[in-house]
Amino acid sequence: MAYDEKTQFRFDFGGIKLEVAGDRSFVEEIYRQVMEDVKEARRRNAADDAAGVRRVTKDDEEKESVWVHRAGDMMRKIYMISRQDLQPMMLSRVVDPKAVDNIYVEKGAFEKIFPDLENGYTLWAEFTATGKKMIAEATEPVRDALRVPKTKP
User: Fold this and answer.
1) What ranges make up the beta strands (E) of the chain?
2) Half-sphere exposure for 7 (CA within 13 Å, toward CB)
3) How high is the pLDDT of residue 153?
4) Which of 68, 70, 66 is nearest to 108 (CA)?
5) CB-based contacts of 72, cutoff 8 Å, min separation 6
6) Are 67 and 102 in contact (CB under 8 A)?
7) Number of DSSP helices (H) and strands (E) in the chain, helices first
8) What residues are paired with 127 via a beta bridge?
9) Are the C-beta atoms of residues 89 and 55 closer than 8 Å to each other?
10) Where in the chain are the domains?
11) Contact 83, 101 (CB under 8 A)
12) Which of 43, 52, 55, 81 could potentially form a cystine with 85 if both were Cys, beta carbons 3.0 to 4.6 Å apart?
């Protein structure tokens, strides 16, 4: 098929760009599918607007998140929770969740302040220097036992 015989379809909608070129029937099929998807997206947006559903953008999500840092002798952990999750907690009686981006809590007080945070909210964890040393000391006997002495030929 010569370039002159190809059918082209260009689509630019809400930051989504699509360009298709090829056999006329193929391009027409893609066009119909894209238009059906656009129609469905518009229908859902209208239904969401009527129901008062709030769409969360990436910027909104970042503004709605609070980083919680748990500091301990062995390990540091970071969690991410929403400001809405902070609202029912005892901490919100003292601190306005809207004014907080980061919270630092010692391990000993952590479970009292955030009793359910350990369950699935951990984003990142790191052993401290003390933790690394204790792990090394605990595994040293195992490594010694696994070492095979070198024999001379």
Assistant:
1) 7-13, 16-22, 65-71, 75-82, 102-106, 122-127
2) 10
3) 59
4) 70
5) 106, 107, 128
6) yes
7) 5, 6
8) 75
9) no
10) 3-51, 58-145
11) no
12) 81
Mean pLDDT of the chain: 77
Q: Identify the pLDDT of residue 142.
A: 65
Residue 39 is encoded by which pair of tokens? 């129609």
If pLDDT is split at 50, 70 and 90, which confidence band does 119 have? low
What whole-number percentage of the chain has pLDDT above 70?
Answer: 76
Q: Strand 7-13 to strand 75-82: parallel, antiparallel, or no bridges (unpaired)? A: unpaired
Residues in the chain: 153
8 A C-beta contact, residue 29 and residue 14: no
pLDDT score, position 132:
86
| pLDDT (0 to 100) of residue 150 | 65
